[in-house]
Amino acid sequence: MKKSLIPSLLLLSALSANAQVDNYSLRLAQGATVKCGLMTEMNSLSEYTVQLWLNPTKWTKGATLLSVGDNIELKLDAEGTIKAKLGSAEATITNADLKAGSWNQLTIVVKDGQCTALVNGTNACEAKGNYAMPADCGELTLGGNFEGRLDEVRLWSTALGNERNYYINNTLNKWAPEANNLLIYYKFDQNLCQDIVDYKPLFDTTVQYNHHAAMPTGATREKVTDNPRLPYLLAGAYLSNNRFYDRGVKADQYLLANDIIILGIKSYTDGHLEYATPCNHATLNNCKWLNEFEGRTGVVSLDGTGSITTTKNVLAPQRDKYGNANYTFETWIYLDEWTEGAYIVRKQSEDGTKGFAISLGKEDTKQVIVTVNGKKFVNTRSMSVGKWVHFAVTVYDGGTVDKTFMFSYDGKAKFAAALLSDDSQVYTPTGADDCVTIIGENLHGKLDGTATWSRRFSIDDLKNHMNGLPMPAIGKVQTAEIIAAGESYYTFDREDNLGFDSYSQDHWLEMIKDVFKGYRGAQIRISVESHDGWQNTIANADRRKKFAADLAKLSAPYDGVELDLEWLDGPQTNLGLLADEIRAALPAGKTFMISCHAYGAYQFPKDKMSKVDGFTFQQYGPQKTFFNMGNFKSSTSAFLNYGFPKDKVYLSFSTTTSKAYNDAGSTVGPIAGYRGLMQDESFDPTDESLNGIAKMNGNNYYFMSPKQVYDRAKYVVDNNLQGIFYWDMGNDIDTTNPLSISRNASYALNSNVDKLVESVTINHPTGISQLNAGGKTAMQYDSLKHTISIEGGKIAKLTVYTLAGTLVKKATASSLSLADMASGCYVVKADLGNGKAPLKLKVMKP
Question: Could you tell me if 79 and 149 lie in one domain?
Answer without folding.
Answer: yes
